[in-house]
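Retry 2 of 3 after timeout on previous attempt. Resubmitting structure tokens to design endpoint.
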């Protein structure tokens, strides 16, 4: 199924604490993953041009379920919980880790890509590189999206992108800013490319 190059409609469908039965309808999907507070939900809002579609928060760990958004009535965008720092007990962190692990380790017929979001200023952390390795081990199509590029000067950004590309290897790298909505179109093109 060809994926539209433009998002014309997007609605929240459901949040699920488990992958069981979530993708039974066979529609393709694109998942977004990253550290807590890296801007996954903001990225989804920028892509869909809907400010409050995915709930955002200044506090890390706002996304606690696998959240599904139906795009153009024929594709899901999946917002996965953040990893790394999450407020709460070790038990809560373990539950979130299990939700992420269950999604990443499952083979979906309709999966199009997984977008790993990094912070431009921070670059890839050990957690990010561990997730990248897990994605590679599971044979996922990976796009590495570098958010918050607007927070760096051009000279800093250029040097940081070179470092990030070196760290992630040959994966597609897309710099953008969810807040300023720059590079968002290029991100969608990279994600939907066959």
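Retry 2 succeeded. Sequence:
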């Amino acid at each position: 199924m060809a994926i539209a190059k433009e998002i014309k409609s997007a609605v929240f469908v459901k949040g699920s604490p488990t992958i069981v039965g979530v993708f039974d309808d066979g529609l393709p999907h694109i998942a977004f993953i990253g550290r807590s507070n890296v801007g996954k939900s903001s990225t989804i809002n920028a892509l869909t041009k809907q400010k409050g579609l995915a709930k955002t928060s200044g506090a890390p760990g706002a996304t606690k379920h696998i959240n599904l958004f139906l795009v153009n009535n024929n594709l899901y965008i999946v917002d996965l919980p953040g990893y790394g720092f999450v407020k709460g007990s070790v038990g809560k962190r373990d539950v979130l880790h299990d939700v992420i692990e269950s999604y990443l380790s499952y083979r979906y017929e309709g999966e199009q890509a997984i977008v790993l979001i990094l912070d431009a200023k921070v670059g890839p952390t050990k957690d990010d590189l561990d997730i990248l390795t897990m994605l590679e081990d599971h044979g996922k199509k990976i796009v590495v999206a570098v958010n918050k590029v607007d927070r760096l000067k051009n000279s800093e950004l250029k040097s940081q992108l070179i470092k990030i590309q070196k760290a992630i290897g040959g994966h597609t790298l897309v710099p953008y800013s969810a807040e300023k909505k720059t590079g968002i179109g290029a991100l969608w093109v990279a994600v939907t490319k066959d």
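Attempt log closed. The mean pLDDT is 86.
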